[in-house]
Amino acid sequence: MDYNKIMVFDIETEANELAIKNLPDPKAPSNYKDADKIAAYIADKKIEQVASAALDADLNKVTAISLRHGIEGKTEVYLIGDDETKDEKALLSLFWSHFLFENGRTVGFNTIGFDLPVLMRRSFDYGIQIPCHPPNLAKYQIEPTTDLMGILFNWGSYRGLKWTCARYGIDNPLPELDGSMYADMDQETKRLYSGNDIHLTVGLLKRMAGIYLPAIGK
Q1: Is 83 part of any domain?
Q2: How many domains, the chain?
C-alpha cells in the first residue's frame, strides 16, 4: 500500500428537510384515544424523524467534506457555502474529482458502511456521474477502499472513531466536540470539527499500520 497515493476523507451530514417532508405522518397507536396525547405522540415522532435523518442516506444531505491526499498531506475542508462549494451538488462533484485523482484509493472510518454509500445516494439524487469506476464497497478488503473501522473491528460490532482514539491514546485536539453537536455548530466550528476527524483518522491509520495494514514505507 502506497500511503502517499491515497485519499483520507470524512463527510458530515445533516437532515434534509425536503426529503423529510416526503415521509408519511407518524400514526399514534390505535389504543390512543385522547386527542392531546395523540398530537403529542405525533409531534415527538416527528422530532425523532428529524433527529435520525442525518444518518439516513435517503433523508440526509452532505454539508461538509474533509480530505487529505497522502498521510502527510495538508487537510482540506469544504463546506456548503464556501466559494468553491456553494451548494451540495458542487460539494459532491468536488469529492468525485478528488476520488478520481487517487483512482478510488480511499481511507476512512466506516466509509463502506456510511460515507461512500451516502455520497453515492446523494449523487444519484442529483444525477451526478462518478467520473471513474464506482467505489468498491465490498467488506473484507484493505484496498482500494480502506475502511479502518471494518478492519479494526473485523467487520463486526464496533465503537466510534473518537472513543477508539481515546482508548488507544491517539491525540484528539477537540475532545469537547462530538457529532451530536454538529448541526448546531457555527460555520467555523464545523470547519475545525471536520478537519479534526481527518487528524484522528490519520492517527488511527498510523497506529494500525504494521499490524492490521502494511507497515508505512513497505
Answers
A1: yes
A2: 1
**99-140 pLDDT, tens per residue?**
999 999 999 999 999 999 999 999 999 999 999 999 999 999
C-alpha cell at 62: 452532505
What is the DSSP secondary-structure string of the chain? --TTS-EEEEEEEEE-HHHHTTSPPP---TT---HHHHHHHHHHHHHHHHHHHTT-TTTEEEEEEEEEESTTS--EEEETTSSS-SSHHHHHHHHHHHHHHTTT-EEESSIIIIIHHHHHHHHHHHTPPPSSSPP---SS--SSEEEHHHHHTTTSS---HHHHHHHTT---S-TT--GGGGGGS-HHHHHHHHHHHHHHHHHHHHHHBTTTBPPTT-
- pLDDT confidence tier of residue 35, bands split at 50, 70 and 90: confident
Domain span at 166: 7-14+66-208
Least confidently predicted of 20-29, 101-110, 129-138, 158-167: 20-29
Domain annotation covers residue 56: no
**C-alpha to C-alpha distance for 119 and 128, rounded to whole angstroms:** 10
* CATH number for 186: 3.30.420.10
Q: Looking at the domain assignment, is residue 20 inside a domain?
A: no
Q: Quick one: cell of 50?
A: 428529524
Q: Edge-to-edge strand order for the sheet containing 76-79?
A: 76-79, 60-69, 7-15, 106-108, 145-147
174 domain residue, yes or no: yes
